[in-house]
Amino acid sequence: MSMRELGHAATGLIWMLAASSVIAGQFHESGTEPPPDASAVPPFYQPFFFRTDEEAPGLSPRVDVHARRAIHDQVARPGYLEAAPPREVRAGRPGRLRHVGRLASSIFGPPVSRARPDPNRHGAGPHIPEPMVFDLVRGLGARRGEFEVNVLSLAPFRRGGPKYEWAPEIEWAIADGFAIEYELPIFDTQIVAQKFAAQYTFGTAFDDAFIHGVQGIAYFDTREREFIPTLLYLAGVRLDETWSLFGMFGGSVGPQIFPFSDEPPTTGTDLIVNLSIFADVTERLVLGVETNFSRQLRGPSEFLFMPQVHYRLSERMSGQFGMGMRDDVEGRHGELGFRIIFER
To answer: Does the chain have fewer CB atoms within 10 Å around its N or its C terminus?
Structure first.
């Protein structure tokens, strides 16, 4: 082949490459570029509602187009096929690691932490912050050996009655998902009761976005010589990386005790509904609103509304602070509360 023929061949090849680049660019701008093969997408990039089989993850035909479009929008096209799932430390619990390299869904907004429980981390399932006033016996899904000492203090903005209530307590997870607690409720400087509690975690659902369990409380009133049993169903759900909901539903039998009231307790069956919402603002800071409602079937009711701030001071120490309103037989008054927590 002569040099002239070789030059013509090279020129033709260059024009062919240029034409193919222009055509590809037009397809990309018009949005008609065919998406990559869905079978090549790593499983951790598939949202929980796209999964069809845990053993052989893949995309069902009905959601194939939507999933591919989400993949194209969420992850840079050149790098998502070989990308390894990043890990990060979960806010509020040292050592809680989770996968975060998933797709954003149109339902929940930001990516939701739904990684399978890791036996090497503290706790199993989603991390749900604990309410400050009516707290848990460790978090749901606690691991064997977790230990906590904390003190709650509440002070009403009202005259008469006890000036403040405080309650030191010890919590210990004696097995995976099972924890016990001992607490000493104190009004001013007088020990008014002894409280024992146990909590069991049933498990998780919806790819570990939901966790639930049960809590039983045995409250011995040392002043009135009364025994008050309480049984509660616990349920928490993580909506996305920021928001989570927690609820406690159940009841108790015996005298209804109002913390800052001079009125004698009334005996009956109480219905208890506690609902809380939390926002993980940063790795250390959580904002929330706790509501506690109890109602005797044939008697008075009590309602507590407590906005609160949770802040992790160090790896083993955290603090909670809240200011809200309580409505009971004494009327409506403001209330201040805080809790100091040491854990390992």
So the answer is: N
